[in-house]
What does this fold into?
Amino acid sequence: MRTNVPLSSRYSYHAVFSDVCKTRFNHLVTRLLLSVSLALGLILALSGAPGREKMVKKLVLWPAKTLMCYLAVLLVVVTRKNYLHVNSPGYSSIVTQIYGQLCSLKFGVYLGIYCVSNICIAAAARDAIYGPSLRSQHLFAYRLTNWALVPALYVVQHVVFDLDKLMFQYGSQHQHPQRYIGSKLKNMLTKCLVLTFGTIFISPLCTVYLTPKSSTMSFGLLWKSAVAAMLSYTLWDFVNLAFSAYLSIGCLHKGKPISSLSSTPMETLATGLASKKPFTKLTAFQELSFRATSPDMQLRLPIYHTRYKNVYIWPSILKECLATINETNVSVAVFMKGLEHQEETYRKTKPLGKSEFLEDGFTQEGLFGNDFVITTSSQSRIPGTPEPHDSHLTHRIKVKNNNVFAKNHSLQFSSPFQFSNAANNRILTHQTTITNVFCDCVKKIKEAFISFFFPVQNADSTPQLSSFELWRISKKMQAEKLAPLPVCHAECAVSLMALLIKSLKEDPKGAVVSSVGEVLKILERSVGSLGAFAEWNDSQVRKDLSVPDVITILYDLSINAFLEVVLNYNELLNDVYLDDDVVKLSKWVLEICNE
It folds into this structure.
C-alpha cells in the first residue's frame, strides 16, 4: 500500500506547530510577564515608608526592582518550558507517585531554580516588607524562611502533583488564555493562602530546631515573612497559570487551523497524527476533531477531495485514528488479563486437600489417564468483549480425575521450606545440616522478597502489579497509567463519529462513508476492553466516585459514538458486512436506547 506524498521537513506538522508554540511563548514572556514585572516593581518601589525617601529616589529603584522580579519569573517559566509534557507520569498509587516524583532529578533542579527565584523576589521586596534594615538576631530566620522554606514548600506540591502537565478538556479544541486565567484566579489565591498558612506553622518550628541560639523569630518577623511568602506564592502560581494558558491554547492560530499555515494542509495534518511527539500528536488530533465537528463544511472538503488528488489522505487519517484507539484498547486488555492471571495464581497457591485438584489446568503428575471436558468460554462473552487471542483462553480444561501416577501425599513433608536433599549436597564440603537449613531459609526468603516487591512478567508477557501498586491502588491513577494520552483517544472517537455522520450529506459516495464497518469494529473493541476496566471493582482499589477515571470516560464516549453512528446509518448497515460482535452490540445499545 502506498503512503502519503513525501513532504519537505518544513511542512511537517511538528515544525509548523513548533513555530506556533514559540510565538505563544514569546508573547507570554515579552508581553504579559514583562508587564506584570513592571507593575510589581513599581508597587514595591513606592511601598516604602512615607517620608523617609523622596519620590524621585523611589522611582530610581523601579528599574532595579523590575529587573529582579522579571529575572525571578523568567527562571520559573524557562524551567517549566523544559519540563513541559502532556502525558501522565504513569503511577498507580499516591505512594509511588510521591516517591517517584520527589526522588528525581527534576525535583532537585526545581528546588534550586525556585530558591534563586525567591532570593530575587525577597531582594526586590525587602525594603517594602521588612523595612530599611533587619536586626542581626532576625537575619538567619529571614534567610531560612525566604531562601529555603518557601521555595521547598512550593516545589514539593508542584512536583508531587505533576503540575507541569498541560491539561486539556475533552472535545475542546481552543481556549482563550485570558478567560482561562480569569477562571482559575480564585483557585490560585486559595492555594496560595493554604501554602502561606503552612509557612506560618512550619517557620517557627524550623527556627527553633535549625537556627542558632542567637537568632530568634518574633511575631512581627513571622507576620512579615507570611506577607513575603504570599507574594512569592502568588507570583509563582500566576506564572505557571499563565504558562498553561498560553501553551494550551489549542489547534487554532489566529482563528485558523495550524495545518492551514502549510501549502499542503491535509498532508501536513497527516504527519501530525503520526508524530511521535505527544504534544504534537495531541494538537493534531484536536485539529482533526475541530474540522470534523465544525459547522463550516469547507474545513472537511480537503478530507473528501484533496487539492492534489491524493486519494491516500483519508486512509492515512483513518489508519492513525484506529491505531490510537487500538493502543488504548490493547493496553487496558493486557492489564485486565494480567490481573486475572494473578488472581488465578493466588487461587492455585492456596493449600489443597487430598481430594482437591486444580480447576482450569493440570499438573505434570496427572498429565495422562485423565477424563476432561472442554468448555468454550466464548459463549458467555458479553457483547463488545474482545475475542481472546490464545487458544488457552478460549478452551478451559476441567480435570475430573487425577489419581493416576499420583504421589502418596501422606508421605510428603508439608513444610513451606523444602530443604536440600542429601544426594544433592556439595561434594567435599564441611556444611552441616543446620547450615543447609539456614541457607535454604535465606534462599526462600530472598526469592519471596524479590517476587513480591519486584515481580517479573508472566509467561505470556503480561505485566504483574508490584506490592506498592497492590497496596491501595488508585483506579483513577491506574487508568491514567494505561491511557497516558486520553485526549487523543477521545478526539479520535469524536472525529470518526462526526466525519461519518456529516459525510452522509456532504460526500455520500466517498471513502469516509465506506469506512463505517471498520469504525464500528474498533468502537466495539473499545466498548469491550474499556468496559471491563470501568466495571472493575476490588477491595484494594481506591475509588473516587465524584470524579470518574479517564477510561470510564472513554468507555462512555465510545458507547455514545457507536450508538450515534448506528442510529444515523440505520438502513445502510444492512448492505455492510458487520462482525457478529458488532451486530450484538448494536442490538444491545438499541435496546438500552429504547428503554
